[in-house]
Design a protein that fits this description.
alpha+beta; Aminopeptidase; seven-stranded mixed beta sheet; three-stranded antiparallel beta sheet; 11 helices; 18 strands
Length: 399
């Protein structure tokens, strides 16, 4: 892995017991382990569960309160301006997770954040409804005091409409900055870089050694020229153990990917990261002393919000305990290729017929059958170099 600079890594890398990792992973998938694996697990669930779980957040997109059959989860990664509520929050990643009634596999489909959709009105946030990019739904719901709950509600309802009335049994929101601390608790993750990736967020001053943003940006938020004396962080193809700051920096990138696959490359890298994190969480030994991780458990609720649809967290864990990283199938929207349309000078992504059929299959619990007929939709989550894609459209906002 081609790291081009040094960064101070926190000296303490505390390892967490399984219950803590379950809480961490609920922000990515909620699919590890068993509550009974930890001595005192029931007590920990009772003590910390209310810090992780939240009511509401799904509106009319909520399913019933039965998780014995097929399950659908909405995972949302957000960029939230800490301490500046007026700046709102954006949904930087949107993933639909489908678990069939057999509860033995999970299918992950990333929805392109630039997908053109109809967003329904939302009275609480005073949004009147309209057509926009799908990631705007969270921001519109968040405004005027709606906050995370209403942002998630409006996004869930938008995704539900896009997927033909799909209902969600639960959802999870992860804040990027808070997630870094949780990955630090795992001691980083093993990632396989599949294409040369240049960071627009992290760089190093060749004279002073100081970290900083390496590129200048134009009015549309697109990186243009390197700043004087700045050298960007570069990730070369290959596998290595990444500390949290590197892994999260890598999966944020979409502008300077070697294969010009933009958001589709970023979606693939995010899916690879989920698998890597789950693998790390299940590979380490389990500690049974909850006092050693009390501080970390107390901080989880600040980074992860799991909207459990009034179903106890212990029930979720027991229902999904058989799904391991090997049982994750990551899927491509639009077969991982740009399908863009410019409307009034704004570039959008349009879901192709096959992707819409995939979303319909999610609602009908026949994803396995559909994927068997369309094996080309399965993403390689191991980090095998990806095929070049068409250039990313230039009319879009900065991530």
């Amino acid at each position: 892995m081609g790291a081009t600079g040094k960064r101070r890594i926190p000296a303490r890398k505390a390892r967490s017991p399984l219950w803590a990792r379950l809480c961490l992973t609920v922000g990515a998938l909620l699919m590890l382990g068993s509550a009974g694996s930890l001595v005192g697990g029931d007590l920990l669930l009772a003590h910390y569960g209310d810090q992780v779980t939240h009511a509401g957040g799904l509106g009319s997109a909520a399913a019933g309160h039965d998780i014995d059959g097929p399950l659908n989860l909405l995972l949302v990664g957000i960029d939230e301006r800490t301490g500046n509520a007026a700046m709102g929050a954006r949904a930087d990643s949107i993933i639909i997770v489908h678990v069939p009634a057999s509860h033995d596999v999970a299918y992950l489909t990333s929805i392109p954040r630039d997908t053109r959709v109809s967003i329904p009105p939302d009275a609480r946030s005073q949004y009147r409804g309209g057509t926009d990019k799908i990631n705007a739904a969270f921001e519109f719901g968040y405004q005027h005091g709606g906050g995370r709950d209403e942002g998630l509600t409006l996004l869930a309802e938008t995704v539900s409409n896009l997927a033909g009335g799909l209902k969600f049994n639960g959802a999870a929101i992860v804040n990027f900055d808070g997630f870094k601390d949780l990955v630090d608790a795992l001691g980083g993750v093993h990632m396989c870089v599949d294409e040369r990736t240049t960071s627009i967020h992290t760089g190093w001053n060749t004279r002073t050694g100081q970290e900083g943003e390496p590129y200048n940006f134009n009015a549309d938020g697109i990186p243009t020229t390197l700043k004087p004396n700045m050298r960007p962080q570069v990730y070369e193809p290959g596998c290595s153990d990444m500390p949290a700051w590197q892994a999260l920096d890598y999966v944020r990138q979409r502008d300077k990917l070697a294969n010009n696959d933009g958001d589709y490359g970023r979606q693939r890298h995010q899916q690879q990261f989920i698998r890597a994190m789950l693998s790390k969480a299940t590979s380490a030994g389990v500690l049974t002393n909850p006092q050693k991780v009390d501080h970390m458990l107390n901080s989880i609720g600040k980074a992860v919000s799991f909207y459990n649809n009034d179903i106890p967290l212990a029930d979720w864990i027991l229902t999904l305990h058989g799904i391991t990283p090997e049982h994750l199938v990551t899927l491509k929207a639009n077969n991982g290729q740009f399908n863009s349309e410019v409307v009034d000078g704004q570039s959008y992504e349009i879901l192709d017929a096959t992707t819409r059929q995939l979303l319909a299959a999610v609602g009908q619990d026949r994803v396995g059958e559909f994927v068997a007929a369309h094996p080309e939709l399965v993403n390689d989550s191991t980090g095998t170099p990806a095929s070049p894609a068409s250039p990313a459209p230039s009319h879009r906002s900065r991530a």
